[in-house]
Amino acid sequence: MEFFEALRHVADGERITKLEWNDRAYWGQMLDDKLVLHKPDGVYYPWIVSDGDLRGDDWDVLVYA
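Structure (tokenized):
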């Protein structure tokens, strides 16, 4: 899906990832009303949205069982 559609999922409390990241420990979400990236090191970083993020069409919602 495209980035802006993925952001709708983030607004609903879901986590999103980009297929090219190829790592389920890497995702974006809202945390304390801020857009953040969770990286494999377990730390949340402020998400500075890039041109590649905006133009990407390989966004996916992470689903946990």
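The longest strand covers residues 27-31. Strands lie at 16-18, 27-31, 34-38, 44-46, 59-61.
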